[in-house]
Each structure stands twice: as structure tokens, then as C-alpha cells.
Design a protein that fits this description.
Blueprint: H1 2-28, H2 30-36, H3 43-68, H4 74-96, H5 104-123
């Protein structure tokens, strides 16, 4: 079981770093990221998309702290998992409503799988 924990830690760390990097990208260049998912952003849409990116960065960073904390941080990790699951719902609804292109579903399913991985991570015994 140790090897599973080792790879699970690496997977959670990878997801967290990807979340930080993509969140920073979204916060710094929201128009570019919006265009990648098929949205022609207005100034207000770009602004709010950038704000979402800032929160993605914060939650990704928080999960890195959860991984490396000497004390269990299950509550913080749970909220990070909820952020990922909520992002899945929000992006999927954006696709259903025609706001985002179908390409955004890749992002949605990354968030869904990330949230589930985070929950599995939190269930593991960290002795």
C-alpha cells in the first residue's frame, strides 16, 4: 500500500501545481484563456474570469500545503476537493448553456476527476 500512497501523493501534488499554473494563467491573461475555450470575452467577463483564476491559484496552493503539512489538514483538503467539484458543475453548466465550447468539457472532467482524487487522498491513512 505504500507505493499507492507515494503515487497518490505525486498525483495530488501534480493536480495542485497544474491548478496553480492554470489559475495564474487565467488571472494574468483571462482573454487568452477565454478564447481557448471558445468565448469572446467582454471586459467584465474577462475581469471575473481573472478573479476565478486567482481563487484557483489560492486553492491549488492550499492543497500543496495540505500535502506537506506535518499535521493532517483534512478540512482544508475537503474544501479544495469541493472547489474542484463545484468547478466541474460550473463549467459543465457553462457548456450546456452555450457559454463555453465543448472543449471546456475537458476542463470540467479534469476538475471532476481532481475532486474525486482529492477525496480519495483525504481518506488515506497518513501515518
Amino acid at each position: 500500500m505504500r507505493w499507492i500512497n507515494k503515487y497518490l501523493n505525486l498525483l495530488v501534488l501534480s493536480i495542485s501545481v497544474i491548478t496553480v499554473v492554470s489559475g495564474l494563467s487565467q488571472a494574468i491573461a483571462p482573454e487568452k484563456v477565454l478564447s481557448m475555450i471558445g468565448v469572446e470575452g467582454s471586459p467584465s467577463a474577462s475581469y471575473f474570469f481573472g478573479v476565478v483564476g486567482m481563487f484557483m491559484t489560492l486553492f491549488g496552493g492550499l492543497m500543496v500545503h495540505v500535502i506537506y503539512s506535518p499535521q493532517p489538514q483534512k478540512a482544508a483538503g475537503f474544501w479544495c476537493a469541493l472547489q474542484k467539484l463545484a468547478a466541474f458543475v460550473a463549467v459543465t453548466l457553462g457548456v450546456v448553456k452555450g457559454i463555453f465550447s465543448l472543449l471546456a468539457l475537458a476542463v470540467a472532467f479534469f476538475d471532476l476527476s481532481s475532486g474525486l482524487v482529492f477525496l480519495i487522498y483525504l481518506k488515506q491513512d497518513r501515518k
